[in-house]
Specification:
The protein has helices at about 5-20, 210-250, and strands at about 20-25, 30-35, 40, 45-55, 60-65, 70, 80-85, 90, 100-110, 115-125, 130-140, 145-155, 160-165, 175-180, 190-195, 195-205. The protein is of the alpha+beta class and about 250 residues long. It folds into two domains: about 25-125, Immunoglobulins (Immunoglobulin-like); about 130-225, Immunoglobulin-like. Strands 1, 2, 4, 5, 6, 9 and 10 form a seven-stranded mixed sheet that branches. Strands 3-8-7 form a three-stranded antiparallel sheet, with no helix packed on it. Mean pLDDT is about 80; it is low at about 5-20 and about 210-230. InterPro entries: CD2/SLAM_rcpt, Ig-like_dom, Ig-like_dom_sf, Ig-like_fold, Ig_sub.
């Protein structure tokens, strides 16, 4: 048997071994915060060793054994990994680059049984008040003052809600808030939440009801509407011009 036949046989055996590995259970969802740490747990009995693979990568990056034994095979994980007494893996100093899918090949006794456990890691940033921006969308006058506000948050996976001051109930579960005139003296708080943190910012809508604020803030929406109308007219004119040219070319 030539060397090439040996390599093919080894490749087939390894491929069959991977494909025949049973699943340890459902894929586990793991959530962590930037700079924090997470645990990739192993729940099997009689664990001998666990080989850890990042699906985003190519090679095995670590191996653990019960008792806290850890062998790191990728320098990018130095000083960031810790083994536990049951063979689980603790990943610390998280960054957004760590998120993705991980696979643990778990060797257990008796029977030298191998099963595969999948994990899906998502890393979120910790929110602060600086991540929240509240923008005035519109102010209506004529003797009264109703205010429309928009809350925007820097970050992904964020849920936004509004709460009126001294109220426990949520006033609105979205980024837009309309405040009628009788309520503009109350303070309203925009609350931003993700799976690892929450932050808030408070505003009093009556502050936007001053004449100078109304004049400046109110011009924004009207200017926006005029821009839309102008763009629509431009599209209609171009379409009309093309239609006339098409008709003339057909007559010729």
């Amino acid at each position: 048997m030539t060397n090439i036949h040996i390599w093919v046989a080894v490749f087939i055996l390894r491929t069959n071994n991977i494909l025949c590995q049973a699943s340890c259970g459902d894929k586990q969802t793991v959530i962590g915060a930037e700079g924090g740490d997470v645990l990739l747990p192993v729940h099997q009995i009689g664990v001998e060793e666990v080989t850890w693979v990042s699906v985003n990568g190519i090679n095995n990056f670590a191996r653990t054994e019960p008792g806290g034994f850890l062998r790191i095979r990728d320098n990018r994980y130095e000083d960031r990994l810790y083994g536990t007494t049951d063979g689980s893996l603790n990943l610390t100093k998280l960054t957004r680059e760590d998120q993705g899918e991980y696979r643990a090949s778990i060797l257990s006794n008796p029977g030298n049984r191998i099963c595969v456990q999948l994990y899906n890691l998502t890393v979120f940033r910790r929110l602060s008040e600086k991540d929240i921006g509240i923008t005035l969308v519109n102010v209506t006058g004529n003797g009264t003052c109703a205010v429309a506000l928009l809350c925007a948050v820097n970050g992904s996976g964020v849920t936004i809600s509004w709460r009126r001051s001294h109220d426990r109930e949520i006033h609105g579960i979205n980024d837009f808030l309309h405040v009628p005139d009788p309520e503009t003296n109350h303070s309203f708080t925009c609350i931003a939440q993700n799976p690892v943190s929450n932050a808030s910012r408070t505003v009093t809508p009556r502050e936007y009801c001053q004449p100078e604020s109304r004049e400046v803030s109110g011009s924004g929406p009207f200017l926006f509407y005029w821009m839309i109308i102008a763009k629509a007219c431009e599209i209609l004119l171009v379409g009309l011009f093309l239609s006339i040219n098409l008709c003339l070319s057909r007559k010729q």
